[in-house]
Amino acid sequence: VLDIRDILSGNQRAGARMIRLIEENDPMAFNLLKQLYPYSGKAFIIGITGSPGVGKSTLIDALIFEFRELEMKVGVIAIDPTSPYSGGAILGDRLRMQRHATDKDVFIRSMASRGQKGGLSLATKDAVIVLDTMGHDIIIIETVGAGQGEFDIANLAHSVGIVSIPGTGDGIQAVKAGILETGDIFIVNKSDRPGADMTCQELTMMINMRSNSETEWTPEIIKTNALNGTGVKELATTFLSHFDFMKNNGLMDSKIKELNSLYFQSLLKDLTLKKILLFMKDSQDCKEILKAIESHEINPITAAEDMVNKLWVLKTQD
Ligand SMILES: Nc1nc2c(ncn2[C@@H]2O[C@H](COP(=O)(O)OP(=O)(O)O)[C@@H](O)[C@H]2O)c(=O)[nH]1
Ligand SMILES: [Mg+2]
Q: What pTM does this model have?
């Protein structure tokens, strides 16, 4: 049996078990999360996003090192929403951070997107609560791409770092994908390759096109070489400056409010969907409506509207 005290004390085995329960949609996980929630809200959550291969995992490994130098406890969640067969990629993510494996103040988990009720976004949020209540000062979420469908890193993190590399026109692609708006720090990794300054200039131009008011954070651009650590200390410091900036300007409060509202919305969606699936499976009403639709007695649009109104009085059964 899992006790929240084990998680609150930072026990890594308890944390790992808890995340497994979340991944398996175990009802016990949701009971524990309810108890844990009041202890959450202390960690600074960083999202690191960018195309596959730009060096996110290597960079996070180097970032962990810098945050550890500052004696901060670091938790990492590596996720891959793109493929149900991503075992290999995820294994790679953890391997790149292997040198921290024996550090009791570093906790790294990977999550696959298989079968998460309410999507990966909700499961990740739940995992963030676990890492937060385990006492990590910094939580880093690694994800491929940003704003992909339901999974949007900006809905989970306080600060978003978008990683690109020289010479790929990633800056322009970022604008096209609409992720420019969600980036707080733009990282040009693999700066040992030619064209890094050019990519920085491109990004500067893009950022200047954004309408930034004085009370807003102006995005920073940082060049890194994740392999030898160049620029990574500056990157760590910049994330912490962003955190301070948000706290000092009341932006943190509004960010937290926004994230809470989105979490609540995801939970509502999840529970509503559960209700609908239950209704489709078991209800005599539903069978009759489907028959009526088939025989053109009722149109599906009106039928759905009527049913949604009725669903509110149905009880969710666990
Ligand atoms: N030259 C160079 N290679 C890098 C750098 N950072 C990462 N790599 C390499 O890029 C490849 C992909 O890195 P990985 O961290 O797995 O990328 P991810 O898919 O974004 O997580 C690996 O072979 C890394 O060694 C860098 O700054 N410079
Ligand atoms: Mg990776």
A: 0.88
